[in-house]
Amino acid sequence: MSKSTIELPRENLLRGKVSGIALRAAGEEGGDADGPVMAGHFAVFNQWTEINSWEGNFLEMFAPSAFKKTIRDNGDNMKVLFQHGYDYMIGDKPLGPIRTLEEDSEGEHVPGVTGAWYEVPLLDAPYVRSDLLPGLEAELYGASFRFRVIREEIDEEPEPSDYNPQGIPERIVKEAHVVEFGPVTFPAYEGASAGLRSLEASELVAQAALERMERQDSKRSHNLAARFATRNESTETAPPTSTDKPEETDEVTPEESVEPEVAETEGTEPPENSGGDAPPQGSAEAEPHPDRGRREKERLYGASTAPSWRL
Length: 311
Fold this sequence. Notes:
This protein is of the alpha+beta class. The protein has a domain at about 15-215. Helices cover about 25% and strands about 25% of the residues. It has helices at about 70-75, 125-135, 200-235, 255, 260-265, 290-300, and strands at about 15, 20-25, 35-45, 50-55, 55-60, 80, 100-105, 115-120, 140-155, 170-185. The strands form 2 sheets. Strands 1, 4, 5, 6, 9 and 10 form a 6-stranded mixed beta sheet that branches. Helix 5 packs across helix 6.
């Protein structure tokens, strides 16, 4: 194999297969006593896949042991999601815990098929029962996984062959890091032994879900802005009511605030009040403090010190 000078995408890639899911009912062989179990291969070994998308046009194959390290080191962190977490109803809720995750190199689960094998008891959750199980029972979904290429071999100019008559570049993935896997409506592969293709359809599903969410957010923002605009217009055009308070001002003139109190206290004896400045409770009108006018006058006209007074 000649050394490659081309660089193919390695990050955040999606692959899958149509016949990658089997549903075992509760009580069946390989099933679970508490509920159904989803099982199958999310990837197969030694089968060429033609990738013809934004990644380029090339053949790809996963070598045996490509998933051994990620299963050993990252198996506990992997998630099982529907539509890679982009489904409009389920979102990124997990479908169940991973009971079995291993490389099946002998075809012991499915005769003649080797690859990455999984078994997942499904959660007894409303979104699983109502949104996922009917499609699984009708065998409408395939399996897909998200991964990153760690090690690879690329033949940039292979000789034409039966599986590659056009001689397009070939990539063998020696090691892959898997993030999540699960059922999808449009898997990347047409089948384990038939013509294969890239995951353009699943990307369209994810993009459509994101666009739908953006449209709903935009509609909610528009409705909220319209409500505020309507409320502001009604506030500006509404006539003042009796509850409207006049605008307060900080300006104080001697004629308004001081003179009436001074005139009221001149020539009269201060009333006796044993309760301080506060008027007696239950009175209809509060009486002014006997010395209030003089104190206000001294404050306004420059008294040097506060007066000393006592009741």
